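Example 3.2
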Amino acid sequence: MSISQLNAAEGPPDSAVQNRLTAAGLVLTTLFFAGSFALQLHAQSRSARGFVETFGYLEVALAVGALTAIVSITGLLACQQCVASDRQWYKSKRAWFTVATVAQYLSISQAMSAGLTDLVYGLNHSFAVGFLARMLAGVATLLWVVLLVVAPLHALRSWWPHFARGERSLVAVSYVAMLAFLLASNAVIYLVQDGAALDAGTLLHGMARQLLQPLMWLNAWGRRHRSEAPGPMWCRSAPRRAPRPAK
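Structure, written as tokens:
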């Protein structure tokens, strides 16, 4: 769908809304397939660790991806119910269509994370083909940045001049809130599974690292593989603080 169609008086056509709904359904299917794959992988492993403890990061990716996909579907359904000529921010067909599009980009990023994390890690450690694993992680990082930042900002920038003030507030706040939620959720589970201290400083640092999350797929958790060579400096978790001496 072109920008001219979105900015038409009648708003985005129903065919465009239906296409977005179909894509959101495919993202949800991919997310749950990744969860089923992880369950089968864990069932065949000899590890005594529970599924929740082993695949906590995957569960977060599934939950965040499902939530953003549901936000996208909800926005598209609201888009179908709105009157195209109404410019009030909570009744704007164009604004809800934009929110749904941005949410769909974010949900696709979580589907990619859930589906590729263990594959890249397995290539790097189980099969010892580090070059191939790094190449895949690099390509995934480019797609990750596009899905989280480039594509949403391009959509907002393209449609921004045609929005009223209330519509601009709706789409901007929605994008910032969803992106912050995605980065914070993934940062917390990565810090927890890496055995790092969890405070405001490490959380902000972890959120910044999540902007390049696929590069961290190459490295093992610090708690699980202390003997392995550490990854790049930016991939390491913040060190634990020494406990205070007892008085």
